[in-house]
Design goal:
The chain is of the alpha+beta class and 237 residues long. It folds into two domains: 168 residues, 2-Layer Sandwich (Beta-Lactamase), CATH 3.30.450; 55 residues, Winged helix-like DNA-binding domain superfamily/Winged helix DNA-binding domain (Arc Repressor Mutant, subunit A), CATH 1.10.10.10. It is built from ten helices and six strands, in the order ααββααβαββαβαααα. The protein has a six-stranded antiparallel beta sheet with strand order 3-4-5-1-2-6, with helices on both faces.
Length: 237
């Protein structure tokens, strides 16, 4: 009997409405992916310099994806952001055959990520999140085709859970703060001014300002408030 995608998503909604623990949510998302005929799921919240992922992709691939900044060349993210509509893709598509993307496509294939369905989600404040169900099958012949309503519903519930529960990332973009940068940011998170932080650390005001400016630049933030928010989300402070 053919799988009814809406009933499958409906069961996912029921599960997510009840779970409170991160491990149970991941299990629900994995169950949804497999019920639709996919091996993998990947939720990515992407901003300018920081990205957060929750996925059951092989850990080595997740780390490599961010270490090599593949989010900047991944055609799936480019298309999803441009169209803001659910779509299917395959490594056999022409988008993956362009010269600058061949290495990315080859490595994805090595980890069994050959095709999938991706849904973009407006994440507020200029950010976009993406939910992907991926398969080792390059043709997507055995996968259930999600209609737009069920796809967007699944993605929205996933984004809502991540936003409200803030589970720990399975991978994230590599942002490393120097100890003094992290300490100054933490004092800012505690409501201290740059001058207060300098006094507390026994350093010059200009040094505290330099540490915070460096941290803001590394995080791709336009303000100290945004830098604190990003660093907190990435568990850096």
């Amino acid at each position: 009997m053919p799988v009814d995608p809406w009933k499958t998503v409906d069961r996912f909604i029921d599960a997510v409405s009840l779970v409170t623990q991160e491990k149970h949510f991941k299990l629900s998302l994995q169950t949804l992916a497999r019920s639709l005929g996919y091996e993998f799921y990947a939720y990515i919240n992407n901003s300018f310099k920081s990205s957060f992922a929750l996925s059951n992709y092989p850990k080595e691939w997740q780390d490599r994806y961010f270490q090599k900044s593949y989010q900047s060349v991944d055609p799936v993210i480019e298309i999803a952001r441009r169209t803001m509509a659910p779509f299917t893709w395959s490594l056999e598509d022409r988008h993956f055959r362009r010269q600058q993307r061949r290495g990315f496509a080859r490595e994805a294939n090595e980890f069994g990520i050959c095709s999938g369905t991706t849904i973009a989600i407006p994440a507020g404040f200029g950010h976009t999140s993406f939910l992907t169900f991926a398969s080792k099958d390059p043709s997507l012949e055995s996968q259930v085709r999600l209609d737009d309503v069920s796809a967007i519903t699944a993605a929205t519930f996933t984004h809502a859970f991540v936003t409200l529960r803030r589970p720990r990332a399975s991978a994230s973009s590599i942002v490393r703060l120097a100890p003094q940068e992290a300490i100054c940011l933490r004092w800012a998170a505690e409501g201290k001014s740059m001058r207060d932080a300098a006094t507390l650390l026994g350093i010059k005001y200009s040094s505290a300002r330099s540490y915070l400016d460096n941290a803001r630049d590394k995080l791709g933030a336009v303000s100290l408030i945004q830098a604190v928010a990003i660093a907190t989300r990435l568990h850096l402070i």
